[in-house]
Design goal:
Layout: H1 29-32, E1 38-42, H2 54-62, E2 67-74, E3 80-82, H3 103-108, H4 130-136, E4 142-147, H5 153-163, E5 169-173, H6 180-186, E6 192-199, E7 212-213, H7 216-222, E8 230-234, H8 238-248, E9 254-258, H9 270-275, H10 281-287, E10 291-294, H11 297-310
Parallel strand pairs: 1-2, 1-10, 2-4, 4-5, 5-6, 6-7, 6-8, 8-9, 9-10
Antiparallel strand pairs: 2-3
């Protein structure tokens, strides 16, 4: 059985709980909904707002979504801002690299609707800064920050610690856990930490930048003693997810699965789930995922809640 320390998300925005067993009496993330599969909104809840806008992120809380994934970049002078692409072309009425735009110029831009594009209407919303997001989000909304440039991590660390927001933030990395840089990454901002673990297929072997594993025993050995929130798994075979989920059951570790593209989850995707949710969203949950990332958070949340209600005696 894999055993690790884990942060008590939602318990406090000023500190992480230290190393403790899953049976600890300290209240935290695991105590909120022990059997409820958590939903991650990819770039926000976009039914009525542009991706990565403040409304798209904040609307997720009222929609019952547990976690929002969003993207962090730096402007010309190093300000931390929310934008997925390396340019502002797709999502705003401007153009150019984020790194070549000043913070004031960035904040003066207007976002295009939903996923943007050259022919998509412009809204009256400006793209947010990371500080605006952290200062406005509900305490109970967990945010996964996808920091697009490793050079931005010192500034992210400073901001999370200054605002006391680390305990409601998840950071992830694909790096192998055998170098100094990995342990430095784990301490950023007091955030919950989650490695991205790919299933090694064919002749693949882990590299310093891209870790992969063939089975749960490899993962247990390589991550022994590290303070982890859980694992994001990227896999070709369903059996890999089942094995890791079985090995971690009862440990307090989360199992995160991304349903955005077929190569992430053995061919299971959001687009297929919209036609047959039981065969895809339901199947991934049955295999042991405890967190599922989606482009359709409201639909996934409604399906999972209905499914859970139907399972009640």
């Amino acid at each position: 059985m894999l055993t690790h320390c884990f942060p008590a998300l939602f318990l406090s925005l000023t500190a992480l709980v230290g190393c403790q067993s899953p049976a600890s009496s300290v209240a935290g993330y695991q105590d909120l909904a022990p059997v409820r599969v958590k939903v991650v909104a990819h770039r926000g809840c976009l039914d009525a707002a542009p991706e990565n806008s403040l409304p798209a992120i904040l609307n997720c809380s009222s929609a019952g979504v547990d976690i929002v994934e969003t993207d962090v970049r730096q402007t010309q002078e190093g300000a931390l801002v929310i934008m997925h692409d390396d340019t502002v072309d797709r999502m705003t009425n401007g153009e150019g690299l984020v790194t070549e735009i000043s913070q004031s110029e960035f904040s003066a831009l207007k976002l295009r609707s939903r996923h943007g594009g050259a022919n998509v209407s412009v809204t009256d919303l400006s793209p947010p800064t990371l500080a605006e997001l952290l200062e406005s989000k509900p305490q109970t909304l967990v945010v996964n920050l996808d920091v697009k440039d490793v050079a931005a991590y010192p500034a992210v660390n400073t901001m999370l610690r200054k605002l006391g927001q680390g305990a409601s933030i998840i950071l992830k990395t694909s790096m192998s856990p055998d170098g100094t840089a990995y342990h430095d990454f784990m301490s950023i901002g007091g955030a919950a930490f989650m490695p991205v673990i790919r299933q090694c297929v064919d002749e693949a072997r882990p590299t310093p930048q891209i870790y992969c594993a063939r089975n749960a025993q490899d993962i247990e050995k390589d991550f022994a003693g590290l303070n982890l929130f859980g694992y994001e798994l990227i896999f070709r075979d369903e059996a890999f997810l089942r094995q890791v989920a079985d090995a971690t059951r009862g440990s307090g570790l989360e199992i995160w699965v991304n349903l955005l593209a077929p190569e992430h989850a053995a061919g299971h995707t959001d687009s297929l789930a919209l036609e047959d949710p039981d065969a895809h969203w339901g199947r991934i949950a049955d295999l042991g995922a405890t967190i599922m990332q989606t482009d359709y958070p409201e639909a996934m949340r409604a399906y999972l809640d209905q499914r859970a209600a139907g399972a009640q005696p």
